Structure formats: structure tokens, C-alpha cells
Amino acid sequence: MSSVLDVSSLYDSYASQLSSASAAGTSGKIGGIGKDSSDEELMEACKSFESYFVQKMIEEAKKTVENEDEEGEYTKMFADMRNEQLADTVTESGQIGLAQQLYDNLKQQYKL
Length: 112
Fold this sequence. Notes:
By secondary structure, this protein is mainly alpha-helical.
């Protein structure tokens, strides 16, 4: 039983670091965009923001649904990674289009 508690505390630490790293990474990418940035760098920063946004939406939506399959200790540990992968997949598909709208707006507004 102590190994489950040890893993749980490690997971809590990991989840906290992952959340702050994702937010910091997204913020860093967007904050690093300037007049000398390429179109690819700007689009990558916009996709990073969309992916982070979608991941947070998925996490909040999952809180509203009770799912017995996700009550296991180990399943909870990997839920963040699954949500991140799902958000990246949705972003790459372009179905939401937030990254493209943000890209177009930044290009126009700041003449990048």
C-alpha cells in the first residue's frame, strides 16, 4: 500500500510541475514573438496556445462527468498526458481554428 502512496505523491508533484511547465512554455512561446519572428514561429506559438486552451477545456469538462473507468489510481496518473495528446491532436487537425484566428489577428494587428 505504501508504494501506491509513494506513486500518488510523485504523481501530484509531476502534475503540478507539468501544469506550470505547460503554461510557462506557452507563455514563453507567445512572449518570444516579435517583428523578427518567422511565420512558422508565430503559427507554432499560436498552436501552442490553442493546444493549452483545449487541454484545459478537456480537463474542466471531464470534471463534470463521473466515469468509473477513471477512478483507478494509475488511470488518474496518465489522464494529464492523455488530455495533452488529445489537445495536440485536436489542434493539429485545425477543427477548432483558434490558432489560425489568433495568427491572422496578430499578423494584421501587429504587422508581423
